[in-house]
Amino acid sequence: MGEKQIRFGIIGCAQIARKVSRAINLAVNSTLYAIGSRSIEKAKKFAIENGLSDSVKIYGSYDEVLDDPYVDAVCMPLPTSLHVQWAVSAAKKKKHLLLEKPTALDTADLDQILEACKSNGVQFMDGTMWVHHPRTAKIKEMLSDNELFGKLKSIHTTSTFYETDEFLENNIRVKPDLDALGALGDVGWYCIGAILWATNNQLPKTVTALPALTRNQAGVILACGCSFNWVGEEEEDEVATFYCSFLSNVSMDLSIYGTNGTIHVKDFIIPYQENSASFDYTSGAKFTELHLGWNVKPNKVEVASEVPQETVMVQDFARLVGNIKNHGGSPDDKWPEISRKIQLVMDAVNKSIDLGFKPVDL
Amino acid sequence: MGEKQIRFGIIGCAQIARKVSRAINLAVNSTLYAIGSRSIEKAKKFAIENGLSDSVKIYGSYDEVLDDPYVDAVCMPLPTSLHVQWAVSAAKKKKHLLLEKPTALDTADLDQILEACKSNGVQFMDGTMWVHHPRTAKIKEMLSDNELFGKLKSIHTTSTFYETDEFLENNIRVKPDLDALGALGDVGWYCIGAILWATNNQLPKTVTALPALTRNQAGVILACGCSFNWVGEEEEDEVATFYCSFLSNVSMDLSIYGTNGTIHVKDFIIPYQENSASFDYTSGAKFTELHLGWNVKPNKVEVASEVPQETVMVQDFARLVGNIKNHGGSPDDKWPEISRKIQLVMDAVNKSIDLGFKPVDL
User: Fold this and answer.
1) B211 and A206 in contact by Cβ < 8 A?
2) Per the domain annotation, does A168 fall within a domain?
3) Mean pLDDT value of segment B119-137
């Protein structure tokens, strides 16, 4: 283990922890140092099933991970309702925090976490992986090109997958005491994040939930949608819509429409495959003579990825941690600010739903 | 000219008339018989510019076309505000009617036209071309496949193009006295039509305009959006959204999301090219182990078109006219019913906008 390697602890052995532990192992600047579960048996089982090295410490409680002085940073794939308690505890113990999304049940809760990170000088980042993919930077490059794309006019995004009846009754992501935000928190998080990302994190002026909503018997959202609007230059409105669901075939659409260009991504959250990802764009589209066709067809842009996007995320995070740990740097505020805006908008979506799909000003 | 050829008259020499006259000439069962403009000079100019045969009658008024006993059917690419007057007049003179979209300023106006068609036994069809493309039937086949697609959950569609400042001030499509419906009528018509088409013409339960709207100085809509919802089986909501605009790069997206499948079309109104068109679908999409990718990538389906979609439209229409004219058949009610539902929904969108983006029940 190199001196400069950031040592990670993972708290909680949910399904996503498997992906995260693999990502840490693949990251050049990170090492999986410890895992902790509520029982030592569960932690050992996780270690065996995922072929973890014998050098990884196995703990039978979350506290032991946080109390281990060699742990630099923790990943926390816990149910959302447990985030405040364990994230604040981690920050107080000076552990840098890579927190699973949704970051909290609401902004008030998230603020407790962010305040603890700030006052303890630790880096915060949420576990949204797609923003770290090199494709994402390539799309942003195009969005920022006034000639190719022009001014942003509208966005539509979806995040859906189809779940079994068993999941819809029993999974933690639909339990009011564990992940009360349901599909809005689990997959709507990505939609809201993508919309904010595309608008350079400008909060919308109003958030209006779509009058179409499905809940399970416990009242947890299984499917919902929302519209956002901004007032742009020249008093022209910009608009975004999203739809998220546990009840629809897998989709991860991100379509962005500008005055000069259009961008389509169909797998923005999890690319079809790990080593490369693509998106389509048209620019300067016009109709041919007599409107018989188009002057351009979509261009496909392929972007290679040397390592999986979750590994890029871990590397990006570990670099910031390393800067603090080894070079006396300060935490980068960019990441908590992004998470907080997503959470703020999510609160507004929830409020709009509660008000019967009325507009909520931000 | 074969006995069975349907003889068309075109009233008005707008840009779209050029496409329609070409379509009639390409149609196997149709002949362009006469054109009429408000001035004989304009009509002659149109005939020369479009290389019309010398046998085509050139009239300096609309009435002369309608009074010509050899004219079986008329196409009417006139500003929407003139539709009632001229469409009713045509129907009274027993001319079958292929009417440009939007069909009327509102349903009350359209009902006058449909009533005139019904009482005079003439066929009505609106000039929406894309529904006649063989690709459209292929997509519907897939939508109807319970295994491939499953139950419909959501739809998003766009119809946008980017217009010059000159257009936005002077074109008839943004003049309150000519095409008062603006972008909603001109391009939103396609979005509403596509949504109804995908739902087998089930009217939504509620229509709610999106709180994002751009008008020109005369108050005509240049960009707007809307959401629709239905209550499906098991009390689960289905939802659709659209966005239409004269202020955004050309886009014609139709994305349809079901429990088992997803369909994406990016050029649904005017295919990129005339001789074939495609769409993408995924079916049974799942994440691979550890959610590292997808088990399937989109399949592309290419559908060849022997003749342009507008020619298919003319042929479909002329076949119905021929059935009435030559075989004593009755007008097919399917087409006026489709148009009327689109117009009804468009009225509701307008009403929702007028009410400040409140839901409107249908």
Assistant:
1) yes
2) yes
3) 98
